[in-house]
């Protein structure tokens, strides 16, 4: 059983011909109006505006004729005006009811169509055949007010939903419409949907990258903030990847398209957000089961209530009709149907704006229950590449001199530690050149001669004797206890200093760990690194639970052990090396997914390389589930309380006079219920944990 993405009513896929496809996913609808709202929301809004412009003026005139003027031919005038409202403004309800009958199901349009038709038909019969009835009372005001109020509520609901889907609309707006195609020396524009893989494209300064590509020529700065959240533009050179939808802020770039259409990062992000918004959470299954039987049960309650009060309670046929109408209108399950989708739409959109992709509503529900967080180290808590952390000079040398000589020796090296030393020197604006001679000692280090003939040695203890190391041994031991790699730098025959390197923590790691712990969640660091490094990182972050030298299977077994103790475990890792553990955990959170959105393991993907976003995702899960529970409570409570009232519970207290206004109040309450559910969901946009 599918769910209508617009109204939330259950739809039998096998019997429904009302379907649509978007981004490879099929959607099913209970009526043509829901399908139109999904495919062409602007046309649906135009119809609602037109219908309201017709229905409300006529409804007001009918109300004046009913309660103020009472002209001689008033019933005939009201019949004409109410018929326009019933069959023009209200035609969408008849169309929806017919669609439901064709698909052998029931929807809210059927309730509204049956209820308002009953009031209109009874009033029409009284008007055209007055002698056949004991009373001359008509209820054209009831049918017209109900239709006008429900259309107003639907219009307000659509406005609220459009706000909720702003995130998806904003993402779609990032997609360029055309691209500049290079064909030899000729440049021409081509619609983006006609671009093919391998085509050469030109991107001018200030323009958006048309599709995921590789830079062939040019050097420029690209603003990737819309995708990665990074505030500073990234320099792109030949061979670098660029993402469709990002902005080329500097010089022109010549690029080659490598991903097009649905394969691009932006399309994948949009698809993930849409899928999450239209997915179900386990808590919704109860609502779905109830909704499937709701309409026929309500019609039966309406018939039994009206018949019971007419046959046993002694009310007249006109009051019996109003009881029937009140039950049908007040019980419309629209609020029940949209309680979950509305909250999911808002939360997935808010998450996307924070660089967080939630693959399904179920992931959000699990996130709300997580009480243990397991983290990988490299690339998750740390940057994943070494950086120079300490430069300690001896023998009269300065820090800049030690760094300069070390960088000269490393200029011909491709080792990751050497690249880090060169990068540190360059960032300090130290001028360095290539050595005259270079000799790499496997497993030990480098011996080089610079252009001035100075002998430079950089490496581990194996390149130096004990006497040379006496000046730096204590400092080296202290740094190594902190989990750092230490290189010794020698000039000539003496040690000039030491350089310590480490895979440094990301700036927000400490903040994230504190947030997890302060929220009552247990935190584990499980890494393949050695115990010394693992314990040093754990100590810096305040993590008490550490497991070092863990292979992928070890991580899975530890997660399984935690789960066996009743824990709900979230695993946070880089989404590649940690894929088995991410899959085994109750909730996998892939961090630093970047341009690999579609293939990452886990239910939540963090586009930015930001561990604190994982905490935001868990907190958003809690807030979302809270809103869904509030929405379902409101929707269920509304029907549980008001259906008995509509069925005549208050007649012994207020007499049958209550039905002079109850049907109209029912319509107002029904519309208000749906708007309340959507508005309550929109409050998620105000929640923040930043």
Question: How would you characterize the overall build of this protein?
Answer:
- It is a single chain.
- 50% of the residues lie in helices and 17% in strands.
- Residues 593-599 have low confidence and may be disordered.
- The chain starts with a strand and ends in an 8-residue tail after the last helix.
- The longest helix is centred in the C-terminal third of the chain and has 38 residues, at 612-649.
- It has three domains: 2-167 and 272-346 and 624-686, no CATH class; 355-383 and 506-621, Rossmann fold (3-Layer(aba) Sandwich); 387-502, 3-Layer(aba) Sandwich (Calcium-transporting ATPase, cytoplasmic domain N), CATH 3.40.1110.10.
- It is of the alpha+beta class.
- The strands form six sheets. It has a seven-stranded mixed sheet with strand order 14-26-25-24-15-22-23, sandwiched between helices.
- The chain is elongated and about 125 Å long.
- Helix 3 (74-89) packs antiparallel against helix 5, helix 6 (140-164) runs parallel beside helix 24 and helix 12 packs parallel to helix 24.
């Amino acid at each position: 059983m599918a769910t209508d993405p617009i109204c939330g009513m259950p739809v039998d896929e096998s019997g429904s011909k009302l379907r649509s496809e978007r981004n490879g996913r099929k959607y099913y609808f209970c009526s043509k109006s829901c399908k139109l709202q999904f495919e062409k929301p602007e046309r649906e809004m135009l119809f609602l505006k037109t219908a309201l412009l017709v229905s409300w003026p006529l409804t007001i005139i009918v109300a004046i004729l009913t309660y103020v003027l009472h002209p001689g031919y008033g019933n005939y005038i009201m019949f004409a005006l109410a018929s326009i409202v019933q069959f023009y403004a209200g035609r969408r309800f008849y169309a929806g009811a017919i669609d439901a009958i064709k698909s052998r199901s029931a929807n809210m349009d059927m309730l509204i169509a049956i209820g308002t038709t009953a009031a209109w038909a009874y009033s029409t019969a009284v008007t055209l055949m007055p002698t056949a009835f004991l009373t001359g009372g008509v209820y054209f005001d009831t049918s017209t007010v109900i239709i006008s109020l429900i259309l107003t509520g639907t219009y307000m609901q659509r406005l609220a939903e459009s706000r909720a889907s702003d995130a998806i609309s904003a993402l779609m707006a990032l997609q360029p419409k055309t691209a500049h195609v290079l064909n030899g020396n000729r440049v021409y524009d081509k619609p983006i949907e006609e671009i093919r893989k391998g085509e050469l494209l030109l991107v001018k300064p200030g323009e958006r990258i048309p599709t995921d590509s590789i830079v062939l020529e040019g050097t420029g700065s690209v603003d990737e903030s819309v995708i990665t959240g990074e505030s500073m533009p990234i320099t792109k050179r030949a061979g670098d990847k660029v993402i469709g939808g990002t902005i080329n802020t500097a010089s022109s770039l010549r690029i080659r398209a490598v991903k097009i259409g649905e394969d691009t990062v932006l399309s994948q992000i949009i698809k993930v957000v849409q899928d999450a918004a239209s997915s179900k959470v386990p808590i919704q299954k109860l609502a779905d089961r109830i909704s499937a039987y709701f309409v026929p049960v309500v019609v039966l309650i309406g018939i039994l209530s009206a018949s019971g009060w007419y046959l046993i309670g002694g009310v007249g046929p006109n009051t019996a009709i109003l009881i029937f109408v009140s039950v049908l209108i007040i019980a419309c399950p629209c609020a029940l149907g949209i309680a979950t989708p509305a909250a999911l739409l808002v939360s997935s959109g808010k998450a996307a704006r924070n660089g967080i992709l939630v693959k399904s509503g179920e992931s959000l529900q699990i996130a709300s229950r997580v009480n243990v967080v397991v983290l990988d180290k490299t690339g998750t808590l740390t940057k994943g590449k070494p950086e120079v952390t300490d430069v300690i000079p001896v023998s009269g040398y300065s820090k800049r001199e030690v760094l300069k000589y070390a960088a000269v020796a490393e200029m011909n090296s491709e080792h990751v530690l050497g690249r880090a030393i060169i990068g540190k020197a360059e960032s300090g604006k130290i001028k360095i050149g290539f050595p005259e001679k270079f000799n790499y000692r496997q497993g030990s280090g480098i011996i080089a001669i610079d252009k001035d003939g100075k002998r430079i040695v950089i490496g581990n203890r194996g390149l130096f004797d004990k006497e040379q190391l006496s000046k730096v041994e204590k400092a080296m031991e202290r740094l190594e206890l902190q989990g750092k790699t230490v290189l010794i730098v020698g000039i000539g025959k003496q040690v000039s200093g030491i350089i310590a390197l480490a895979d440094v923590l990301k700036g927000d790691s400490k903040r994230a760990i504190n947030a997890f712990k302060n929220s009552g969640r247990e935190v584990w660091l499980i890494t393949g690194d050695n115990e010394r490094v693992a314990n040093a990182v754990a100590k810096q972050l305040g993590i008490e639970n550490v497991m070092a030298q863990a292979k992928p299977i070890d991580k899975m077994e530890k997660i399984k052990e935690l789960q066996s103790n009743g824990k709900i475990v979230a695993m946070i890792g880089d989404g590649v090396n940690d894929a088995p553990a991410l899959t085994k955990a109750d909730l996998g959170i892939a961090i630093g997914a970047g341009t690999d959105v579609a293939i990452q393991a886990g239910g939540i993907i963090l586009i930015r390389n930001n561990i604190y976003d994982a905490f935001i995702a868990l907190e958003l899960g809690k807030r979302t589930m809270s809103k869904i529970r509030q929405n379902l409570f409101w929707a269920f409570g509304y029907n549980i309380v008001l259906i008995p009232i509509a069925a005549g519970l208050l007649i012994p207290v207020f007499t049958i006079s209550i039905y002079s206004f109850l049907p109209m109040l029912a319509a107002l309450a029904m519309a208000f219920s749906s708007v309340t559910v959507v508005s309550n969901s929109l409050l998620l946009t105000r929640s923040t944990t930043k």
